[in-house]
Amino acid sequence: MAFKIVLILAIIFQFLAAGLAAWINTRYRWHSAWILISGAAVLMAVQLTASLASIWDLPPDERLDIPTWTAALAGLAISIMFLGGVALIEPLFKEIATAEKLLSHENRRLEMAVQENEAELHLARDIQRQLHPKGPPHAPGLEIAGDSHPAEYTSGDYYDYIELPDGRIGVVVADVSGHGVGPALLMADTRAYLRALCLTRSDPSEILTLANRAIAEDVADGRFVTALLACIDPVSLKMEYSSAGHLGFLLDPQGELHTLESHMLPLGALPDVVVGKSEPMLLTPGSLLLLATDGVFETQDRRRQMFGIEKAIDLVREHKEESAEHIVQVLFDAAHHFAGGAPQADDNTAVIIKIHGKSAT
């Protein structure tokens, strides 16, 4: 009789363990491992039931041997430990479920924050795009086109066309060190300074000198702005320019390259300096000016080789008979193709000025 009670208890504990494992699966998560555990508990219960059935009809006074008793007691112990093990795991599953809920809530909160941040960055990009020229200036004899491609949502590059008080056209290209939101804000300040100065001044040296003082007061250490301001008379086709750490390039009608050198360090580097300017130069019809930021020339492929100034100049020279807008697009497309899928590391800006009119002597 005692032997039967041992087997019955073992069977009950096994079925309880199987039921508890199935309940844990249903409440928390359905794992194939738990299906196997439940199945194993049921099969052990079936095995014990078969053992019970095999001795059920034995006379009550019949003595069973020690190995049989040992197997029965071991089965009971296994059943108790099986049930206890499953029961002890249940709180762990409860903690995991609570942690998953908290993690899911935090993920949703982070996703919402990212979406809000992206919406704000999209808005910032749209606002910055509105600061770019709406179109080329009205300047018979000149064909001007430009564009800018930011490395991130916002850009530290700046280009503009400004009508000066003396009737000349001011074309400016500038590059704030770095890229992203911080340089974009400094770019907006630089644009505001230059546009305000150009309302009452026409001399490129004076304009950049005063802009340098204002920028030097605003920027933190290590921030600077390279800039080139070219002032072109659309009637006489005479040009003078000032450059603060920014190169420009002039292709004459024969395709010969003339570099527009810099006159001083970038804006913001030193507060009390005068930005020099070039001597007036006559732009021959058929000439072409390329003003670009270093992001174009320093575009790198996956082997970290640079696109380079020479390649850009050769490309412009090859397409110099086409429209200024087309040349700008060809330049960007070539740099993008050269990168070969490598991420854009810096903002890219380029302006092309083609000289068509007759120069006045």
From TrEMBL:
The keyword Membrane applies. SUPFAM superfamilies: PP2C-like. Keywords: Hydrolase, Membrane, Transmembrane, Transmembrane helix. InterPro entries: Bact_Sigma-Reg, PPM-type-like_dom_sf, PPM-type_phosphatase-like_dom. One of its GO terms (molecular function) is phosphatase activity. It comes from the Bacteria. Residues 139-355 form the PPM-type phosphatase domain. The chain crosses the membrane at residues 31-56, 68-89. Its EC number is 3.1.3.3. PANTHER family: STAGE II SPORULATION PROTEIN E (PTHR43156:SF2), STAGE II SPORULATION PROTEIN E-RELATED (PTHR43156). This is Phosphoserine phosphatase RsbU.
